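Complex record, two chains
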Amino acid sequence: MNILNSGLPGSRVLMLGNEAMARGAIEAGVQLATSYPGTPSSEILGSIAEVAKELGIHAEWSTNEKVAFETAIGGAIAGLRSLCSMKHVGVNWAADPLMAVNQTGVEGGLVLIATDDTGGYASQNEQDTRYYAMMAELPMLEPSDVPEAKEMVKTAFDVSEKLNLVVMMRPTIRVCHGRADVTLDPLQSLSRQGKFVKDPGRWFMSAWRCRARHKLLHEKQSEIQQWADATPFNKLNIAGDSVGIIASGATYTYVMDALTRLNAQDRVSTLKIGTHPIPRVHVRRLLENTRRVIVFEEVEPIVEQQVKTIAYDHRFDVEILGKLSGDVQREWDLDPAAVKSTLARTLGLRRATADPTWESMVKTAEEMAPERFMLMCAGCPHTATFAALKRALMFSRGKAIYSGDIGCYTLGVSDPVNAQDTNYCMGASIGVGCGFAHANVEEPVVATIGDSTFIHAGLPALINATYNNARMLVVILDNTATAMTGFQPHPGTGITATNDEVRGVRIEELAHACGADFVEVVDPFNFKESVAVMEKALKHPRLAVVISRRECMLITQRKTRSKGEATATYSVDMEACNGCKVCISFGCPAIVWTGEKAEINETLCNGCGVCAQICPLRVIHPAA
Amino acid sequence: MSAQSHPPGGVANMASKELNILVAGVGGQGNLLASEIIASAAVREGLKVRVAEVFGAAQRGGAVVSHIRIGPTVYSPLISEGQADIVLGFEPVECLRTAKFLSSVTTIIMNASPVIPVSVSLGLTTYPDYNATLELLRRLTSNVIAIDATDLAKKAGHAMMMNVVMVGALAGANLTPIATERFTDAISSIVRKGAEAMNHKAFEYGINAI
């Protein structure tokens, strides 16, 4: 039984935010769904894919977000309700088609869910995708919590078809990765047959046509504003005092918690914001009724600036506080405690007095807790690849510039691996590596990139590198999955999102086709062979590609467990161990230092056996 | 199994109409599964629930905290500082890390079995003494219950089920308005197929550990 395609309408079930949005799309009759995995968005398509075949939905993991969005555009302009989901930085890839489809508009509803990793918990930044909605002049919805996220997806499809425009959604990390009780509505099956009506003036964007379509988009802005002014996702509550709060998205729940705790619900006016553009009618009424307004929103001061514009346009003499005034924290996601203290300070509400004894105990406790680094898992093939790479680099006394990329191997930045020097975006390891190579740096340039990331964005960079003769070692860490986001398949695995076997692509063939004349495949669990091949690759006079291929250990473990088999673990011969710490510097979380010797935690050990190959004394053996 | 909902000493002690549970552990310990079981049990009990899963990029090895908030007046999924009613700590150091969420009336249910961070093995940090940890936690709140959940999970069949033992301990402590069979129903629907019996056993061991 799956909650996405079953459950009685009206029943209440616990759902992850991303599952709730997936359910919302199915309740809205979605027929085509695309995505590229990325935290915190992955479970949206992942959930739909599980039930897609049964419901007649085409669901796919696309090669990247640009292709995912283009596929969804094709579906939508042929009349199907189409959903495209991606993490916030994915929109940077999809921005190119976005800035054209905003002009052509759509026929079937097209909803683009951009999940904003506010706080950058699992990302290279915390960019605010509301700016994309502004730039593309498209309507956007921002849910405050999980149940509302489901409702908003359904509304988004309706609005998209009413206005013939793409509708964007910006659920933030607390909504995507929150769970809540959600009420199920009936599923809807639209079963539309795709039909594309040719109309070059509309679908073929070029010099003069785009001007006409841009004008049309501007003419639609008043319709968008009318919708924003009327939708119940924006909610105004005028209260007694002359202070007001405007809260966008998830911050509304923090404000409501804070007001409850401060016992101030009846005193302070609130305006909940769920749309972009913001509801001007509500903002005006709030400004009419207040002397001081504080704006809560996550990442950039977008609502704040618009409220100021409205205040100026209508000559309201109201103090507007927020990120720009320095009253609300500028970076990171907000939380109820931060909102409460800001409210207490700026609105002159009751404040709890600090207890220095308590605070000092809390500080002691926090300081006593040792840091836990981001780490690769026990038995991770990437740890083995890095170890072999570092051994092969002994000829340069370990010196190298590690041009890094996005994926599990990003965790190689931590002690003791220390083999990621830069991290920008998908595919940048090879692209930035090209620059290092042409800058004639002294150290060998090593670009490390995963299998899925290579297919996503590494291909054009690798062609560029061979074409322009950038000498470097490109290590493709192929663990046969998009592991970091939850083991999604990709074209290199030959499996689709809906579990169909396809021909797929072979990464070594791609590397050859990109112009590399040195392409070798190694098994990172064979340490000696891996070191030998990498040494050879580093001496190659041109760009060399080494594909280090071994299935993600977590997938292997799942298979082992589902077969009911036990994992063969390793242990240290404690009498023979001389405490040289070579295995400790390998960076496996299962290897623990006792103070004198190394010990292997049998619960954590996944039995890769690489430590046994690295141990200089050869005193690590399969456990009895 | 008998229903044991609404114990007089537990829920009635809560100052407000909300119950805030913090589940703190290390990536790989099954923290998110445990919080899903607790939240699902609460929904089955007919309660309003909000959950936040707070973790970084690490699949394994990093600190992971789940916030579970239950009650009609709850809006956001995040627990504020000083507002945790219960901490379910999967590991001693992770209990310390929840300090700012504690108050003198918080109940801490702690798995005494440590997970040593690599930073300690590398000699960059030290792992605090167990007794010192316990003593400090007891200065913060007098309600600290320490059990060896990892050992109980091994006895039930596998160390991996420590998370379910801890959920059992939560049920056994009678601190929530959720009946025991709601937990067992939730476990049946959430854990891997074929592993239900083993997990029910782990849950039972947890209840009896309190």
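Note: The beta strands of chain B are 19-26, 49-54, 63-70, 86-89, 107-111, 143-147.
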